[in-house]
Amino acid sequence: MTAPAPPVSPSPATRALTPVSKVLRLCLHALLLGLLALAAGRAVADSAPRSGWVIAACAVLAAVYAGGVRAPAVHSSPRAGALWLAGLGAVWAGLLVVSSDGLWIAFPLYFLELHLLRLRWGVAAVAVTACAAIGGFVAHSGAATPGAFLGPLLGGAVAVATVLGYQALYRESERRRELIEELITTRAELAAAERGAGILAERERLAREIHDTLAQGLSSIQLLLRAAERALPPQAPALEHIARARGAAQENLAEARRFVRALTPPDLERGSLAAALERLCAGIPGPRVRFSLIGSPRVLPTPYEVALLRIAQSALANVVRHARAGRAEITLTFMDASVTLDVVDDGHGFDPASVSPGAAGSGDGGFGLPAMRSRAETLGGLFTVESDPGQGTAVAVTLPLPLEHLEHADRAEHADRPDAVEAL
Predict the structure, then answer these.
(1) Which residue from 1, 137, 293, 313 lies 20 to 30 Å from 414 (Cα-Cα)?
(2) For all residues of the chain together, what is the average pLDDT?
(3) Mind giving me the DSSP string for 315-360?
């Protein structure tokens, strides 16, 4: 059995005991058993005519109470608790018949009834117990005095107020405990997310730096060495050294590219941007998402692939969370000097002019669209959103390819052709 002041659940006895409830439980045990001992002692001391019956009734009531306290079913089953209370009430009624001192037992019974029964049934049981106590006192005293009514009624009112007050405090304590646990969990998740975001940002930065500086420089060195090799006479002594230098440049270029692949986001590790977008579409829950590729795919700089992948992820997150769409489509288009990503859905749409940071309707708590726009503009791209309520949404981002990337791509494409060396 738990404390006389129960938690809010239908069967508070099944909840774990707090230190306060354990103390209250012990106090309830001591109060009831002490009052039974006092009633039996008074019957013996006063040599009451029914002292034997009084002692027997007190002993039976103590035994029934102890049995219920130790019975697991009373704690876990409201039905078993109600039956136990009915047994206690029947024995208490017998004690009330043979002794007016049985009136004292009503007060601990109030707490038991409020504890084991639902609130409305507990209050009704308290009222019945108070009426029985009043009736027993009037029957033994022979006079209906105001005190005979006020005592049991005030005791019942105090018990109800005490239990309701304890329940309110318990609910408030539980809310605070849950809030603290939620704050601790959220803080840990936020810290982990910040660490993960920092790691990914640093990986992307390093991949971009290696690709745009070291890898491109080694590629240029290799092409220049190849041109120098073809420009020298066949028997020139420097040819062997140039061949070794070109081989070393080739090995280091391959190593640099391995570093870039290792530092790219996990979604890009297993293939191209198109493959990553196709896997992304296949893993989206809810709407049917289709991926389309237009134009001849080419290897993009790492920052471009990362930006396009992140924008696609954020746009699809908006579709799942807010658009209530049945279908969506991602289109990746390669053109001569630019690459375009379009994300279109048939959801309920919104007014783009009304979306601002923190406003509902944009992903990630209102920062999805600004974050996508920032990614695109950082690379010199154009980000647009077209939508109307009930007309779906279209998100498009166009990134112009850097001139040096086009030059390096063209050199890599023609590096093995004889006329490429002449063009250098």
Answers:
(1) 293
(2) 77
(3) HHHHIIIII--SEEEEEEEE-SSEEEEEEEE-S----GGG--TT-T
